[in-house]
Automatic annotation (TrEMBL):
Its EC number is 4.1.1.65. Keywords: Cell membrane, Decarboxylase, Lipid biosynthesis, Lipid metabolism, Lyase, Membrane, Phospholipid biosynthesis, Phospholipid metabolism, Pyruvate, Transmembrane, Transmembrane helix, Zymogen. It is found in: Cell membrane. It catalyses: a 1,2-diacyl-sn-glycero-3-phospho-L-serine + H(+) = a 1,2-diacyl-sn-glycero-3-phosphoethanolamine + CO2. InterPro entries: PS_Dcarbxylase, PSD-A. It comes from Afipia carboxydohydrogena (Pseudomonas carboxydohydrogena). This is Phosphatidylserine decarboxylase proenzyme. The keyword Lipid biosynthesis applies. Pathway: Phospholipid metabolism; phosphatidylethanolamine biosynthesis; phosphatidylethanolamine from CDP-diacylglycerol: step 2/2.
């Protein structure tokens, strides 16, 4: 069956995720540098092209389908679940000094870095803290690294979400303000380039993910307050 060039072009375009507006200055900068490198030496120019494509992929902002039933907690970031354990939350969250279940998601420089709200609720607090830029996979990064923290009030309790800068990241960008209401899966910020997201669950919540799993922002369910889960066993192939 004959397919028009326009139909083929539309099919290809549908497979290319949109780019977040925060990325355009960086992509433009990489593209300009590539042109200069081509003028200096062609092989360098092609390296610049590869880096420009990588930069565009880094700032991709694909459409996500978010489960919206009350009680669900979805992943705020793309990446690998690196830690699932009870930890005393940072003081700036105001969530007390008792350990709460923390789920950490590590984002490599190849993951999409647009962050999404794990729940529907009102932003009760935003707290920014400057710090270091050590490897975000290390546990001490939660205390030492630059971070931006949100406390979201929900019917199930207050949930903490922390954007943590990493070894390469040098800028945490927030799109929201205190007092705003968020929908589950709504974009609330991003981090440039490579970092981590921590989610602190209210007391009694049980995680539905394990270390090593791949999380998809706005889609992967991290926890569910409306089910009694007695614990799960995971197998890694």
């Amino acid at each position: 069956m004959f397919r028009s060039p326009m139909s083929i072009a539309n099919s290809i375009r549908a497979q290319i995720p949109p780019i977040h507006q925060e990325g355009y200055p960086f992509i433009g900068g990489f593209a300009l540098a590539s042109l200069i490198l081509f003028w200096l030496w062609t092989p360098l120019g092609w390296i610049g092209v590869v880096l420009t494509v990588w930069c565009a992929l880094f700032f991709r902002d694909p459409v996500r389908t978010t489960p919206v039933r009350e009680g669900l907690v979805v992943a705020p970031a793309d990446g690998r679940v690196s830690m699932v354990q009870p930890v005393v939350p940072p003081a700036e969250l105001g969530l007390g000094d008792k350990p709460l279940m923390r789920i950490s998601i590590f984002m490599s420089v190849f993951n999409c870095h647009v962050n999404r709200s794990p729940v529907a609720g009102r932003i009760e607090r935003i707290a920014y803290r400057p710090g270091k830029f050590i490897n975000a996979e290390l546990d001490k990064a939660s205390e030492d690294n630059e971070r931006n923290s949100l406390v979201i009030a929900t019917p199930a309790g207050r949930i903490g979400v922390i954007q943590i800068a990493g070894l390469v990241a040098r800028r945490i960008v927030s799109f929201v303000r205190e007092g705003e209401s968020l929908a589950a899966g709504q974009r609330f910020g991003l981090i440039r380039f490579g970092s981590r997201l921590d989610v602190f669950l209210p007391d009694g919540a049980k995680p539905l993910v394990a270390v090593g799993q791949t999380a998809v922002a706005g889609e992967t369910v991290l926890a569910d307050f409306q089910i009694g889960d007695g614990g799960r066993v995971y197998r890694t192939d």
